[in-house]
Design a protein that fits this description.
362 residues, 7-stranded mixed beta sheet, homodimer, alpha/beta
Chain lengths: 362, 362
């Protein structure tokens, strides 16, 4: 997407054996980049959430394997790299999907060919992600057109950041929003701030502002009230893993918004790239591992002080215990549908298989 | 309640014509007090949320009228005082209830008697609040006993601060929690941080810690996930206004937790002091005015820096638009019941009238 007139992706190769990322822990204040030259640096970037968002995690992992292969292209090094990267974040399935693809495609080659092939594969994963998101955008645009009220912008609520910053480019949940905005449909986005890491208030607000899409940040508590009062026409969220039965795992709090949408007759969709579907799982609430992160992400928060210094402050009394679950699962029954890169379908096994028929025989 | 061994209320008279309050904007860091000597100071304390919580707002308003009467006991001054105080916060009905009582009881007296009578009335409002909350605690304790699981503490989720800091003493939602803890029932409280003003993370966590009640702070997004996984046995929240039909207006985000409780079969109760019931209203979603506060409460947050200085930081990009609705309404159909000072009843008109039969003829 364009940032102050310049086209950017979230991750791109620069020269031999170096991949550059936007350091998302510095946004919205600084648009800083970091160069990754080793598998360890790639793993740290994922773990520390310098890159985040299921699709971007997958792309970064593919580059991580390529960086590992440049140093040592042995079978052992390949397996070690996959192990290191797989351990960084447990919930998003794109990570496993990208690494399994690396194992399959790179592992099959003689060691001498692996470094170059892994680099090429990582670039392909990135390009495919962008193509997937553009397809999601086209299908989602039709839904937005259907929801368009007379005489005012369509109000879309989103949770967390499933924007271009969560992917290589374009975004998943935002793909349709950008598509609508770019073709002149008046759109207004309610941006959930998304505690505890505030990816909505920082990243989604930042990227919508830079693209010129009207938006308003709200606390995560507010969406139900807005829906009760007719102020939301449509909800679109991302997903870190969607089961074969259509259960949608996404940032903690998504489930609460889906409940409010159902209670108020507001359509609630997830934007689901094919690689986010976990065909091995059915019951998302029981089966998807939910990452627990450090309590300090709840008890402390970072922001910018009056003199524009990034400052961390404590929100609770000293030594207050806190729990920090990163994701929740919205049962398929609460989803109006899934916007995939192959079309929109009901959040059911049959719905997904109708678009991904090759999985019937997998 | 006791703070480090010392019994305290949130508001108490000190000497002639001065009432002292805990400055809740300084908690949990400083236990500071402020002396109010004029009606204007009382109004500012309510508006700036140095005092907050529906019952405490009512008590502070009664003292505000007493301070006004000490300066000028004319009819005009009484009406002016009521007008100033009524304009401070629009949602809580206790404010109107306390002021109407002042008008009725003080306005009926000759001006020469008003100052002393108003002071006495304000003290009575405070004592009655404590008695009401103790009664709520007794009835709520029975519900907790029913929810007690074998072999582990009962997990109670609460939203915002309906603790003793929201009242004169004891609290409403916390009344039963303190009663259970004090009689040896093992209790653990999930404390919603309650954005944007974080009354849960700051005030509820502070008062539970000082009373020794085990608790864990969570982001507002987390409650649904906890309920899906059997980690919540019971929800108890406060209310700023409950309609005659049982719709419960409370801090923004309460409605989302009620939806999750219903979806997971978790009992969901509001602690409802008699003065919080608005017998004039039926449809809470349509009829209760919802306060909109400054956007800066969403875009900025205050906390304590490493060197223990109260510091405000910006969470969003500069100039990000934000909306800030203070309350929402949970429809009666989502409430398991209402814990009033006269007993527990269904959240229905008949349920409430069975406990407040005098309202049948009002």
């Amino acid at each position: 997407m364009r940032v102050d007139g310049v086209s950017m992706r979230t991750i791109w190769p620069v020269g031999a054996g170096v991949v550059r990322i936007i350091d998302q822990t510095r946004l919205p204040h600084d648009l800083a980049t970091i160069d990754l030259g080793t598998i360890e640096q790639a793993a740290t970037a994922i773990k520390s959430m310098q890159v985040r968002g299921a699709p971007l995690i997958g792309a970064t992992a593919a580059f991580g394997v390529a960086l590992a292969m440049a140093a040592d292209a042995s079978d052992a090094a390949l397996e070690q790299a996959i192990g290191i990267l797989l351990a960084t974040r447990p919930t998003a399935v794109n990570l496993r999907w990208a690494l399994e693809r690396c194992r399959r495609e790179i592992g099959a080659l003689p060691p001498a060919e692996r470094a170059a092939a892994a680099w090429k594969l990582a670039a392909a994963v990135c390009d495919e992600d962008v193509a997937i998101n553009r397809a999601i955008g086209r299908f989602g645009l039709e839904l937005i057109k259907k929801s368009l009220p007379r005489g005012r912008p369509v109000n879309i609520l989103t949770h967390c950041n499933a924007g271009w910053l969560a992917t290589v480019d374009v975004g998943t949940a935002t793909a349709a929003i950008y598509a609508a905005h770019d073709c002149g449909i008046p759109v207004h986005v309610w941006v959930d701030e998304t505690r505890p890491r505030n990816q909505g208030a920082s990243l989604t607000a930042w990227e919508l502002a830079h693209h010129g899409v009207p938006h308003t940040v709200i606390v995560d508590n507010a969406g139900g009230h807005l829906m009760q009062h007719g102020m939301v026409d449509l909800c679109i969220v991302g997903t870190d893993r969607t089961t074969a039965a259509g259960d949608v795992c996404n940032k903690i709090g998504t489930y609460l918004k889906a409940l409010a949408a159902r209670d108020n007759g507001v359509p609630f969709y997830a934007a689901v790239p094919g690689p986010s579907i976990d065909w091995n799982l059915s019951d998302g609430v029981k089966e998807i591992p939910i990452e627990q992160r450090d309590a300090s992400e709840v008890t402390h928060i970072s922001g910018w002080s009056n003199d524009d210094a990034l400052t961390t402050v404590r929100l609770t009394p000293k030594d207050t215990p806190a729990a920090n679950y990163g994701f929740d699962v919205t049962p398929a029954r609460l989803m109006t549908g899934l916007i995939t890169d192959r079309g929109v379908c009901p959040a059911t096994r049959e719905g997904l298989l109708s678009l991904f028929p090759e999985q019937r025989c997998a």
